[in-house]
Specification:
With about 220 residues, the chain is mainly α. Helix content is about 65%, strand content about 0%. The protein is elongated and about 65 Å long.
Length: about 220
C-alpha cells in the first residue's frame, strides 16, 4: 500500500506550518510594536492591512529570508569543492570514494537525459534557485528598508534619502550583515558538531556506531 499524503510529505508540511505560525506571530507583534512607536511620536496608528504592506514589515521579513537563502545557496556550492574530515555534511575526502550513480537511463530525469545546456541547468538548479531567491529577497529588503527609512525620517522631520543613497547607508548593510554572520555561524556549527555528535535516524547525522573520522553520511 502506498503511504498516505502526510506520510509522504510530513517533513515539508510540518516545517511550513511552523514557519507560517512564526510569521503570523511576527505580523501581530510587529504590528503592535510599530503602532506603539507611531503613537509615541504623536501619529495615528495603522490598520493591520496597511502595516502588512509597509516598509517596516517587509524590511523585517525579507532581511531574514535573504540571509537564509544566501546561507543555503553558498553552502550548497561550498560542499561541491570543499571537504571537512569527519563531518556528516561533507563529501568523502577522495572523489573515488563516492559510489557512482546506478540509476537506469530510462529512470533518470528527462532534463538530465537531454544533455547540453539543459543538463547543466538541471545539474546546478538547486544552487541557482537559492541564489536567485537570495537576490530577489535582497532587492525586496533594500526596497522595504528604504521605505521604512522614509517613514522614520518623516516621523523625525528629517530629510529623505533616495533609493540610491540608501543603498550605501551603513544601517542597511548592518541589517544584512547581522543576519548573514548568524547564518554562517549556524552552518559552521552543523559542520563541526556533526563530526563528534550524533542524532539517531537523522540523515543530517552519521550513523551512531561510526567513528568520528568517518566523513559523509
Amino acid at each position: 500500500m502506498q503511504p498516505g499524503f502526510f506520510r509522504r510529505n510530513g517533513l515539508s508540511i510540518v516545517v511550513l506550518l511552523m514557519m507560517l505560525v512564526a510569521w503570523s506571530a511576527q505580523c501581530v507583534t510587529g504590528y503592535a510594536a510599530h503602532n506603539e512607536e507611531l503613537v509615541e511620536h504623536g501619529h495615528a496608528s495603522l490598520r493591520f492591512g496597511a502595516y502588512l504592506v509597509s516598509g517596516d514589515f517587509w524590511s523585517a521579513t525579507l532581511e531574514n529570508w535573504e540571509s537564509e537563502f544566501l546561507q543555503m545557496g553558498v553552502y550548497v556550492l561550498l560542499t561541491v569543492w570543499l571537504r571537512q574530515k569527519g563531518s556528516a555534511e561533507s563529501r568523502p575526502m577522495e572523489d573515488g570514494e563516492e559510489a557512482p550513480s546506478k540509476v537506469p537511463a530510462h529512470l533518470q530525469p528527462k532534463a538530465w537525459r537531454k544533455g547540453g545546456f539543459t543538463r547543466w541547468l538541471y545539474a546546478n538548479s538547486l544552487s541557482l534557485a537559492f541564489l536567485t531567491l537570495f537576490l530577489l529577497c535582497f532587492c525586496g529588503h533594500l526596497l522595504g528598508s528604504w521605505r521604512k527609512s522614509i517613514e522614520v525620517a518623516r516621523l523625525h522631520h528629517q530629510p529623505v534619502e533616495s533609493l540610491v543613497q540608501y543603498a550605501g547607508d551603513p544601517s542597511f548593510w548592518f541589517e544584512s550583515f547581522q543576519n548573514w554572520q548568524s547564518e554562517f555561524l549556524a552552518v559552521f556549527s552543523l559542520i563541526v558538531l556533526s563530526i563528534f555528535l550524533r542524532q539517531k535516524d537523522s540523515p543530517q547525522s552519521k550513523k551512531v556506531d561510526e567513528p568520528n573520522s568517518k566523513t559523509g553520511t
